Amino acid sequence: xxxxxxGNKFLVPGATVATMLMLGILHARRLYDDKKVEDRKxxxxxxxxxxxxxxxxxxxxxxxxxxxxxxxxxxxxIPVFLxxxxxxxxxxxxxxxxxxxxxxxxxxxxxxxxxxxxxKEGSRPIDTDPNCLVSPVDGKILQIGEIRGPGALIDxxxxxSYSVSSLLGTNSNLHINDLxxxxxxxxxxxxxxVPGAKSWWCVSLASPKRQNPMSMRPKRGIFYCVIYLKPGDxxxxxxxxxxxxxxxxxxxxRLFPQNExxxxxxxxxxxxxxxxxxxxxxxxxxxxxxxxxxxNIGSIRLFIExxxxxxxxxxxxxxxxxxxxxxxxxxxxxxxxKKGEEVAAFYMG
Amino acid sequence: xxxxLVFQAPVSEMRNGQAISNFEFSxxxxxxxxxxxxxxx
Lengths: 349, 41
Fold this sequence. Notes:
The complex is a heterodimer of chains A (349) and B (41). Chain A has helices spanning 2-42, 53-58, 63-74, 83-94, 111-115, 164-168, 260-265, 269-272, and strands at residues 133-134, 139-147, 153-157, 160-163, 220-228, 236-238, 243-251, 275-282, 285-292, 299-302, 324-327, 335-337, 342-347. Chain A is α+β, with helices and mostly antiparallel strands and 349 residues long. In chain A, a hairpin with a 2-residue loop joins strand 3 and strand 4 (160-163). Chain B has 41 residues and is mainly beta. Chain B contains no helices and 5 strands. Strand 2 (139-147) of chain A pairs antiparallel with strand 4 of chain B, so a sheet runs across the interface.
């Protein structure tokens, strides 16, 4: 028994050392990979799509259960005297700016409350130029551009793209197609698709030679902007323009991580992940905003529809084809939202 | 997490021999942005 006892005596410390060693090696490998990414960026080498074994391994992980467990952990109440220490440690680790928090740190009962904090009045002045779109979130611009030609693709990263219709939903108001020659100008007129109305958006990407040169209407293109929010960023979503939100689509999907390494290695990241799409119209025509969740930040709440539930345990393993869709005020003008107004927030878990 | 904006806006075109410049982004890939800052005009 003694031998076995002494064997057991070394088991726990041995396992602990081995785990710490493994975590240390993983962390060092992570630092090395990040250093490589930084070096490439400094040399102006644009990251390219390079799927690896880890990415395919991701599909096997119970990401949704991990995400929901993380959410429960983040909602645990922290004793008041410990709150400033915990939130300062979080701010140091994720480069958050504590000065902007609207409330004293003691007022945030949990890390979740701190994560979805409001900012002090005036922390984010809204550009009032009527001809500009403003950023709806704090973050880093990953991709911007104009969508051209058939397929209407957006780059996930150099070497891999996805289609707008798979991001927004195949029954989006945005019909991307190349117009035939005989379509007249009025077919291009975009009037919002509202049940009962006799009109619909047809936003063509017909090549300029096909569009009627004599028409007085300004030609319109479709543009996109992809913004990545780091864990330490302010995570409320504001309105980029004055617009009417006409419909909401919720795709339950998966919860792959969304960090820069994931963008470069996981195929179809944005069109497989859980996301909420708000679609409507602004003074220049169609506009849509897709809020896409990740493993650690898997929940999206809408201030215009508080009852919506995301990151549910029952979400189908295989991303459901048909998203859950809702028309706001069918037949009406939808929900009118001003530029800079809060429309949603990301939550952890 | 990630936010993707997709929107319609006027494109640059020639009219009566004049170039009318329309929507242009005021940010580039890799830029840090904050809520409320212009990303295009």
